[in-house]
């Protein structure tokens, strides 16, 4: 069974130690992310197991309830977002780091939108994840503002709300979504 760990601004899904069990676990998370994004948090667990290439018993051995699976996918997405933020901040110049982080944030928001209906809004895990989202983006924003790449009047809260707004819109296609995202990101640039 997966467990969620939260401490000092981090969240993580505890994965099995055995290589074969870890492969199954990771395949289930990937399939669940895909299926939940396509069909919402009430998607068929049998479909998730099928796409992961495992039996339904393996799914239930790793995630005894639907809530356990939804929570693990969500926490894994937040964990991936935080890693992407660190990598962008460590390897890219300030403006490129902002762009890379926000494009990854956009992917996170698509998954979040599909999963959030499965959460209690006062969940400790949800609160911890929210804190990680904010704290992972703050250093990128701070650096970009110090270097004059991003407007000084922008806060991390502004960015999160902007990204949530974009995620909540139904676009004609991915090309239009990417164009609107590009316009929003460009609006953050210092002039």
Compose a concise summary of this entry.
The protein has 191 residues and is mostly helical. Helices cover 69% and strands 5% of the residues.
Q: Topology as H/E string?
A: EEHHHHHHHH
CATH superfamily label: Tetracycline Repressor, domain 2
**Are there runs of 5+ residues with pLDDT below 50, and where?**
1-8
Task: Indicate the percent of residues in helices.
Answer: 55-70%
- Give the integer mean of the pLDDT values: 86
Number of domains: 1
Q: Please report the total strand number as a whole number.
A: 2
Separation, N- and C-terminal Cα atoms: 51 Å
- CATH classification class: Mainly Alpha
What is the rounded Rg?
Answer: 17 Å
Structural class: mainly alpha
Q: Please tally the helical runs, counting DSSP H or I stretches of 4 or more residues.
A: 8
């Amino acid at each position: 069974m997966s467990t969620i760990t939260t401490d000092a601004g981090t969240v993580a899904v505890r994965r099995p130690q055995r290589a074969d069990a870890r492969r199954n676990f990771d395949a289930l998370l990937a399939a669940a992310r895909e299926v939940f994004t396509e069909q919402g948090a009430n998607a068929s667990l049998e479909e998730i197991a099928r796409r992961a290439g495992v039996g339904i018993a393996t799914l239930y051995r790793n995630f005894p309830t639907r809530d356990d699976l939804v929570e693990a996918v969500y926490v894994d997405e937040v964990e991936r977002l935080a890693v992407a933020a660190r990598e962008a901040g460590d390897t890219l110049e300030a403006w490129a780091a902002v762009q890379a982080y926000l494009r990854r944030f956009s992917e996170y928001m698509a998954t979040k939108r599909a999963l959030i209906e499965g959460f209690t809004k006062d969940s400790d895990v949800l609160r911890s994840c929210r804190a990680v989202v904010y704290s992972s983006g703050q250093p990128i924003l701070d650096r970009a503002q110090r270097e004059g790449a991003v407007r000084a009047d922008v806060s991390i809260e502004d960015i999160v709300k902007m990204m949530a707004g974009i995620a909540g819109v139904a676009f004609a296609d991915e090309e239009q979504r990417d164009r609107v995202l590009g316009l929003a990101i460009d609006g953050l640039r210092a002039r």
